Amino acid sequence: MTSTKIKAKRAARQYTWEDVEVLTYKSEGTAPFKDVTRQVLFDDPHLAAQWRYFEVAPDGHTTLERHQHVHAVMVIRGRGACLVGTEVFSIELHDLIHVPPLTWHQFRATLNEPLGFLCLVNSERDRPELPGSEDLQLLRQNPDVAAFIRV
């Protein structure tokens, strides 16, 4: 019988956890984003999933990107908006967002408060794909999307 170490991660303070490093969202210069951090809360090969917490500072935004894997997102702090595909949604506490494979997505915080969300993804996943000029041209055909996206 194998023994598995059981580990509980207590909240160190609001929106941070013991023994969980607050990381930069991405390396500077690799993709456009503004004021985002990430924390990997759970990563277990038996489940093949990773649970992460992202925090977007007021008026910040994540990268406009897409992947082959699915995202399941739950807002646990603040309010903001997100692009999923060709639709922009207002989001707030406890909202659930499903991002299907190969779907453009981006998250933005409001001007006056941070946006924090949990994100569940595959542990092994593809790298993000950034939009090219043709992709941006297609996305910007929708005036709501054109006004929302930051690149």
Word description of this protein:
With 151 residues, the chain is mainly beta. The protein has a single domain, classed as Sandwich (Jelly Rolls), CATH 2.60.120. Helix content is 9%, strand content 43%. It is built from 2 helices and 11 strands, in the order E-E-E-E-E-E-E-E-E-E-E-H-H. The chain has helices spanning 133-139, 143-148, and strands spanning 11-13, 16-17, 23-24, 34-44, 49-61, 71-77, 80-84, 87-91, 96-99, 105-109, 115-122. The strands form 3 sheets. The protein has a 6-stranded antiparallel beta sheet, with no helix packed on it. Strands 8-7-10 form a 3-stranded antiparallel beta sheet. Strand 7 and strand 8 form a beta hairpin. The chain is globular. The N and C termini lie far apart (52 Å). The mean pLDDT is 91.
Order of helices and strands: EEEEEEEEEEEHH
Overall pLDDT:
91
The first-level CATH class name? Mainly Beta
Largest sheet: 6 strands, antiparallel
Q: CATH superfamily assignment?
A: Jelly Rolls
Structural class label: mainly beta
CATH architecture: Sandwich
Low-confidence stretches: none
Please describe the topology of this protein.
Layout: E1 11-13, E2 16-17, E3 23-24, E4 34-44, E5 49-61, E6 71-77, E7 80-84, E8 87-91, E9 96-99, E10 105-109, E11 115-122, H1 133-139, H2 143-148
Antiparallel strand pairs: 1-2, 3-4, 4-5, 5-11, 6-9, 6-11, 7-8, 7-10
What's the gist of this structure?
The protein is mainly beta. 9% of the residues lie in helices and 43% in strands.
